[in-house]
Design goal:
There is one protein chain. The protein is mainly alpha-helical. The protein has four helices and no strands. The longest helix is centred in the first third of the chain and has 21 residues. It is globular, with a radius of gyration of 17 Å. It starts with 14 loop residues before the first helix and ends in an 18-residue tail after the last helix.
Length: 104
C-alpha cells in the first residue's frame, strides 16, 4: 500500500493479518477454480452454508458484480469443499464482545 494510505494504520491491514487474509484468498480461489465458480461466489456460498442464521448482504459496484453475486445461488459446495474452507485459519482479531440478554 502507498505510504499515505490510511489502511496502513488499521489492524486489519497489519502484516500478520494481511498475510492471513492472503492465505484465505488463495484457498478460496483454489476451491473456486476446482468447482468452476468465482471466488466471490464461493465466499457467498460458504456464508449461506453456515445456516439460516447467517444472511450475506453483498455489496456491488457494477452490474457485472451483481450478476456474479447472484450466481452464488447456483454454487453447491461439497462437504470436502466446506471442510477445506472451514479449516482455513483466520486472521488474529480481538475477541468480539457480546452483550448478555436483559433479564425481564
Amino acid at each position: 500500500m502507498p505510504e499515505k494510505d490510511q489502511r496502513r494504520r488499521l489492524p486489519r491491514f497489519q502484516q500478520d493479518n494481511l498475510r492471513a487474509d492472503l492465505d484465505i484468498a488463495i484457498k478460496v480461489r483454489d476451491v473456486a477454480e476446482r468447482i468452476g465458480a468465482t471466488p466471490a461466489q464461493v465466499a457467498l456460498a460458504w456464508l449461506v452454508a453456515q445456516g439460516p442464521h447467517v444472511v450475506p448482504i453483498p455489496g456491488t459496484k457494477t452490474p457485472g458484480y451483481l450478476a456474479d453475486n447472484a450466481g452464488a445461488a447456483n454454487v453447491q459446495l461439497s462437504p470436502d469443499d466446506l471442510a477445506d474452507l472451514d479449516a482455513i485459519p483466520g486472521p488474529r482479531r480481538r475477541p468480539v464482545l457480546t452483550v448478555p440478554p436483559r433479564r425481564r
